[in-house]
């Protein structure tokens, strides 16, 4: 099982020196990958709407203070040498398809093939209204179309594509990504359309367990989701085992309520022994990667958490 951590590109830890220090420390500790999140702008957050917490509030402090994802990934790539860089997740409709494909290819080349493209359709309408030119209601269809366009641009010598939202012919996108045939695509999201997208495009399904509308926060729920993924992958004409599972942990320990709404124990609630048992259970389900949040109130506290969790995760 690969182990990653979220490098905070929002809130109190966004100073360049702090970001570089945390990224390099994570690399030195042997983490397999780090993640960065994607928002371009945020609205007034007085009205909670974040899908992944019980209150609807963002879990990080000062979420409106943040770096743009792809610029940040390129910068972090230059500050590190070996650790993989995971977009967690790129909101695909935020950027025109050709521009995003080119930027992602550039990051993969300049990082020496360390990019994983986590993708999602997005959820924040106010941000879409300010940033995106395609309709918010069509974001799922736009995401699927742009992903197909990415693959054409990354793998075809003279890519051509004709869609409802993007079209091109006889372009040259060079250099191509280092990773062949293309960087791995991890499909985020927990809804039925997200699972279908993972089955069609993904090298991994990448859920956050605590989505209030579509929870995968207990072992039975996650097992059922993985079973559904296997069925959808076969229906898409692919080997049911072609799509692995990566799991994103937003909180663990005392911050996690002990029971899910299904009455089962919440994953990563309780103590360290419970977390270790959860990791082993996830591995038994075929989960191949897990990443955790390490951000605390300041850099020193965050680094302590980074080290604590690495020591814990080394025991699995």
Written account of the structure:
This protein has 316 residues and is an alpha/beta fold. It has one domain (2-313): Luciferase-like domain (TIM Barrel, Alpha-Beta Barrel). The chain is built from 9 helices and 11 strands. It has helices at 16-29, 69-79, 97-110, 125-131, 139-155, 192-201, 219-235, 272-285, 299-313; strands spanning 2-6, 33-36, 84-87, 90-91, 115-120, 161-162, 167-168, 185-188, 204-206, 244-249, 287-293. The chain has an 8-stranded parallel barrel, surrounded by 6 helices. Strands 6-7 form a two-stranded antiparallel ribbon. A hairpin with a 4-residue loop joins strand 6 (161-162) and strand 7 (167-168). Helix 6 (192-201) crosses helix 7. The longest helix has 17 residues, at 139-155. The radius of gyration is 19 Å and the shape is globular.
How much is the average pLDDT? 94
Strand content: 5-15%
Order of helices and strands: EHEHEEHEHHEEEHEHEHEH
Report the span from N to C terminus.
9 Å
Largest sheet: 8 strands, parallel, barrel
The tally of helices reads: 9
Using DSSP, what is the number of strands?
11
Helix content: 25-40%
**CATH H level: which superfamily?**
Luciferase-like domain
Q: Which fold name is given in CATH as the topology?
A: TIM Barrel
Helical/strand content category: alpha/beta
CATH architecture: Alpha-Beta Barrel
């Amino acid at each position: 099982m690969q182990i990653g951590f979220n490098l905070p590109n929002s809130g109190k830890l966004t100073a360049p020196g702090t970001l570089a220090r945390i990224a390099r420390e994570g690399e030195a500790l042997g983490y397999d990958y780090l993640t960065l999140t994607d928002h371009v702008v945020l609205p007034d957050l007085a009205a909670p709407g974040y899908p992944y917490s019980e209150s609807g509030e963002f879990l990080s402090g000062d979420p409106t203070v943040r770096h743009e994802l792809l610029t940040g990934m390129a910068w972090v790539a230059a500050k590190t040498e070996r650790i993989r860089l995971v977009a967690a997740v790129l909101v695909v409709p935020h950027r025109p398809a050709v521009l995003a494909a080119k930027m992602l290819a550039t990051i993969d080349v300049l990082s020496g093939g360390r990019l994983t493209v986590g993708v999602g359709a997005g959820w924040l309408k106010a941000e879409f209204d300010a940033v995106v030119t395609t309709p918010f209601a069509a974001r799922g269809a736009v995401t699927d179309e742009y992903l197909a366009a990415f693959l054409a641009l990354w793998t075809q010598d003279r890519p051509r594509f004709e869609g409802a939202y993007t079209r091109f012919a006889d372009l040259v996108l060079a250099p191509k990504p280092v990773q062949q045939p293309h960087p791995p695509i991890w499909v985020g999201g927990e809804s039925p359309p997200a699972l279908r997208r993972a089955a069609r495009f993904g090298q991994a399904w990448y859920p956050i367990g605590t989505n209030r509308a579509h929870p995968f926060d207990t072992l039975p729920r996650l097992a059922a989701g993985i079973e559904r993924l296997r069925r959808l992958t076969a229906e898409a004409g692919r080997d049911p085992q072609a799509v692995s599972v990566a799991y994103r942990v937003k909180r663990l320990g005392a911050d996690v309520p002990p029971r899910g709404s299904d009455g089962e124990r919440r994953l990563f609630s309780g103590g360290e022994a419970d977390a270790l048992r959860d990791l082993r259970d996830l591995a038994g389900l075929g989960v191949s990667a897990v990443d955790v949040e390490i951000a605390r109130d300041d850099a020193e506290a965050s680094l302590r958490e980074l080290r604590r969790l690495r020591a814990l995760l080394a025991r699995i």
